[in-house]
Amino acid sequence: MNDGVAIETQDLSKRYGSTTNGVLALDRVNLSITKGSVFGLLGPNGAGKTTLIKVLTGISDITSGNAKVAGFDVRRESLKVRARIGWVAAEVILDDDFSAWENLWLQAKLQNLTEWEDRARQLLQYFSLLDRKDERVNQYSTGMRKKLEIALALLHQPEVIFMDEPTIGLDVGTRRMLWDIVTGVHKEFGVTVLLTTHYIEEADALCDRVAIIDQGRIIAEGTPSELKARVKADLVQLETSDAFDVKTLQAIAGVQEVRAQGNDWVIRVGSSEEFLPRLLRTIPTEHIRRISVEKPSLEMVFLDLTGRRIGQEEEPMRDIRKFYMQMRRARQ
Amino acid sequence: MRSQFWGLYVREVLRTFRNPLVLLITVVQPFMWLAFFGSSFGAVPKQELEALFGTSNYVQFLLPGVLSTSMLTVGMFGAMSTIQDKRFGFMKRILITPTSKEVIFLSKALGSATRGLVQIPVMVAAALVFGVRFGLSPLEWAAWLLALLCLAIGFSSVFLAVTASSTDWQTPGVISNFITMPLMFASSALFSSSQFPSWMQAIAKVNPVSFTALLGRSFVLGRVVDWSYLGYLVIFAVVMITIGYFVSARWLKVE
Q1: Residues A221, A75: one domain?
Q2: Which one of A230, A331, B53, B63 is least enclosed by Cβ atoms within 10 Å?
Q3: Which among A176, A158, A210 has a CA at the least distance from the CA of A33?
Q4: pLDDT confidence band for B77 (50 / 70 / 90)
Q5: Does one domain contain both A211 and A200?
Q6: How far, rounded to the nearest angstrom, does the alpha carbon of residue A247 sit from its chain's CA centroid?
Q7: Full domain range(s) for residue A258
Q8: Closest by alpha carbon to B254, among B32, B4, B86, B19?
């Protein structure tokens, strides 16, 4: 492993249960995460994001493959790894019977720290919790609890912080605040952040690099703009009042692909800005019920790669899923 | 390791005092034992009590026994607090630090044993109210306390070992019901075992609950002290804590 890498995995696999009936939660994951970066793991629920964090933090055993965190082998040097990482849970986990200061005290004890008070005070100051440090944390708001949890994760000056779905279940305001905190913490404390999320906009807004994970496999990796560039097209969704010949649409300049479901059309075009005026010249406006345009986003990348949307329920969307799958196959 | 043990041990003990209801019931429960069970021979003539128990005050006979049986249940609290930590994810918070599962076990076992000791001064005070007079030397007090601590540590370790891989709230309660009753009745805690059938006498003879009850009773009633009981109890505690230590290292579940 070279010096600039904070996390590195080689063919990392994790299987729950037996070889025959078990579930392969991670399937030969290869990652190399640069020191000092914010790395996002984007994928739907059950994709293997939390499992990867559990394996990298030593909470779960590795089935096969290798992983190094902060320069140490996760399996053989687990205690050294755990002294160098911080962890922020999806659900806030604090001792509710304790005050913020006591929670920090316990964390300091668990991390074998002797000089921790100044650092703890600085962190509380940074998160605007200093004046309420002696209050029991069950009196805290969700946002405050989350901030304290991040303070706990930073107390021992870790090299890497794992944040598992840091904004899940939070209201929009708190989520925005947390985004600022993640960016701020990363800049202020120079720590590598590995965060998991199933919110596309979160990965887009926070991460230097993103890996898209689905069914335990990393299916794409790159900067958000690199990933979005892969799609190279806009999707125009069109609903018309009457059925008409698909060839009419295919004939419009710039159209790459047209798919229809009754009077609903999904048209892949090079540039929606150039396409829309042409469309309106071809189809009389009174026949158009609705037009929507989707620009390249990580959501589209995921859709493009898997044929389904992140967070999409399995059953009701089956047709659309099949539809996108066909679209992808047709293009290949 | 010392720092981590101390952090978790203090957390375990402090949590008891942070919940007033738990503290109240921990304190009141043995008192109720003395009040209700101790009064059950209230109408028996003094000579008969003297013949049965070697004292005319049944509470004086009962106190060492009740203290022993209450050490049986402290393990249940340790196991419940461990399961709560698993369910609320706190076990993960602990284990994503350089803390080992063995240290978690030790802090839980000793933490819940300490919590059990809180009952002792309360019970002794309650016994004074019921007319018991204590003529113990400081050494005898210390020996009695050590015996109870060994019993508490031993049973806490048993509970933690048995529930190491469990994440179900119900397990500690079920196990407690399962082992507390037989061990309580097949011991010298409540009655003298001399009137037991032979098979129950056999259990009572190797039952560590009997050892603390008999040792405590010999101090309270001023009888000849058999110090070997204390030796057995120390062995019991050491064996159980060793078993718990290795079982936890191997089987303590994280969530």
Answers
A1: yes
A2: A331
A3: A210
A4: confident
A5: yes
A6: 39
A7: 230-331
A8: B86
Does A332 have pLDDT greater than 60?
Answer: no
Instruction: Specify which residues A7 forms β-bridges with.
Output: A33, A69
Check CB contact of A115 with chain B, cutoff 8 Å: no
The whole-number average pLDDT for the span A292-298 is: 82
CATH of the domain at A264: 3.30.70
As a whole number of angstroms, the distance between CA A330 and CA A332 comes to 6
Average pLDDT, chain B: 89
Q: Is A89 on the interface with B (CB under 8 A)?
A: yes
Same domain, A185 and A237: no
State ipTM: 0.89
A211-266 pLDDT, tens digit per residue, is: 999 999 999 999 988 888 877 788 888 888 887 788 888 888 888 888 887 888 88
Whether pTM > 0.90 for this model: the answer is no
Domain ends where: A228, A262, A284? A228
Same-domain pairing of A137 and A239: no
Chain B within 8 Å of A106 (Cβ-Cβ)?
yes
Distance from CA of B77 to the nearest CA of A (A): 16
Q: Which domain holds residue B91?
A: 2-251
Ranges A8-22, A92-106, A284-298: which has the least confidence: A284-298
Q: Do B96 and A57 touch (CB under 8 A)?
A: yes
Q: With beta carbons under 8 A apart, name residues in chain B contacting A57.
A: 96
CATH (domain of A96): 3.40.50.300
User: What percentage of residues in chain A have a pLDDT greater than 70?
Assistant: 92
* Alpha-carbon distance B11 to nearest alpha carbon in chain A (angstroms): 8
Tokens representing B177 are 């019901």
Report the number of distinct structural domains present in chain B. Answer: 1
Whether residues A110 and B18 touch (CB distance < 8 A) is answered with: no
Can you give the pLDDT at residue A17? Answer: 86
| B15, B97, B255 ranked by CB distance to A110: nearest | B97
Q: What is the DSSP string of A176-202?
A: HHHHHHHHHHHHHH--EEEEEES-HHH
Instruction: Tell me which chain B residues have a C-beta less than 8 angstroms from the C-beta of A110.
Output: 3-4, 7-8, 94, 97-99
Check whether residue A291 and residue A190 sit in a common domain: no
Rg value, chain A, Cα: 24
Q: How far is A185 from chain B (nearest CA, A)?
A: 20
Burial class (CB in 10 A: 0-12, 13-18, 19+), B41: middle
Does the distance separating the beta carbons of B19 and A109 come in below 8 Å? no
A79 in B contact zone (CB under 8 Å):
yes
Q: Which of A175, A205, A228 is the last residue of a domain?
A: A228
Q: How many separate domains does chain A show?
A: 2
pLDDT mean over B186-197: 84
